[in-house]
Specification:
Layout: E1 14-18, E2 22-26, E3 38-45, E4 56-57, E5 61-67, E6 69-74, E7 77-82, E8 86-89, E9 95-100, E10 105-112, E11 119-120, H1 125-129, H2 141-145, E12 152-153
Antiparallel strand pairs: 1-2, 1-12, 2-3, 3-10, 4-11, 5-8, 5-10, 6-7, 6-9
Length: about 160
Amino acid sequence: MSDGWFVVSVEGAAWITNDAFGGRCVFEGSKPAKFADLGITLAVLERGKPSGMYHAESNQEDFLVLAGECLLLIEGEERALEAWDFVHCPPGTEHVFVGTGDRPCVIFMTGARTADKKIVYPRSELARRHGAGVETETASAAEAYSPLPRWLPGRPGGWQRLPWA
C-alpha cells in the first residue's frame, strides 16, 4: 500500500481483539505507520465490556454509534446511547463507553493527532464500577492497561463475517 489514497472494506481491513475490550477495526493496520493527523477506529463492544479505560486526552475526539446500545461514562455522568447518537469530546473530556443491550455495539471513533498529545487516566469510582477505571490516576497508558490482556490480531469471537451486517 502506498502513502496515497486507498479504499478498504471493513471486512477486508485489519482487526484486533482483546478479551477485556472486544474488537477493533483499524483501517491503518496494514500500513507501516499510523495516519498522521486523524485516528480512526471502528470499535465493537459486547455487553458489559468497556471501550478502554476512562480517560481524557488533550486532543478532540468524536464518536458515532452505528449499531446496538452502550453506556457513555462522561465527566462523572452516565448516558445511555443507541444507534445514530453522536458524541463530541472537546480536549480534556473524561470518557469511556460500555456495551449494553443484547447485540454488539458498533462505534465509529475518530480523534485528532498532534505531536504534543497528552492523556490522563483519572481515578473514577463510576468507571471502576463498570470495569473501566484505574485504581490510581496515571498519565501512562502502559500503567493504566498493565493488568489487562494485550490486543491480538483477529476478529472477536472468530467472526468470519460481521454479525451486524
